[in-house]
Amino acid sequence: MNYDGTVIDNSNHEQEQRKMPDTSPKFRGGRNIAMKLPPHQYEATIKFYRDTLGLEVTQTSENSHAVDYGPIRLWLDRCAKTSHAELWLDIGTSDTKKAARHLAAQDVVRCDAIEALPENFDGYWIANPAGIVHIVSGYEDSGAV
């Protein structure tokens, strides 16, 4: 209804909108969750998952271990510049460039300076409104197939 009380006929416009292809990027939760740990909690956390829970834990680098956590891969990362543990999540997308435009239009905070990514990696860092960090990458990199 218009401000003057007349009825607006949107039936043709609605039909046109339904025919337009959806060009929004698709998102899926990824397989990876990273637990960023201060050095004073790192070894005890590894022992908890490996020795207390009996999960398979594999060292992947000097400062990183991967935990076989069912369908999830839980990364335990030693972070010298943090004072408390944080969880970082993985989100896969069908098109990282289109996703970046979509997220920017939704006022999602981009935080690429938080951690360097490999040079030719097709992805970037964002934070949700609660400040939880997410890596956005293509489906193949995220394991969200």
Indicate the topology.
Elements lengths: L10 H9 L7 E11 L1 H14 L4 E5 L2 E6 L2 E7 L7 E8 L2 H10 L3 E2 L12 E5 L5 E6 H4 L3
Parallel strand pairs: 1-4, 5-8
Antiparallel strand pairs: 1-5, 2-3, 3-4, 6-7, 7-8
Task: Report a brief summary of the structure.
With 145 residues, the protein is of the alpha+beta class. The chain has 4 helices and 8 strands. Strand 2 and strand 3 form a beta hairpin.
Going across the major beta sheet, what is the strand order? 2-3-4-1-5-8-7-6
What's the story with the biggest beta sheet? 8 strands, mixed
**Annotation, overall tally of beta strands:** 8
The portion of residues assigned to helices is 25-40%
Q: What class, by secondary structure content?
A: alpha+beta
H/E topology pattern: HEHEEEEHEEEH
- The shape is elongated
C-alpha termini separation? 45 Å
How many helices? The count is 4
Strand residues, percent? 25-35%
Mean pLDDT over all positions? 86
Gyration radius over CA: 21 Å
Low-confidence parts lasting 5 or more residues at pLDDT below 50?
A: 1-7
Give the oligomeric state. single chain
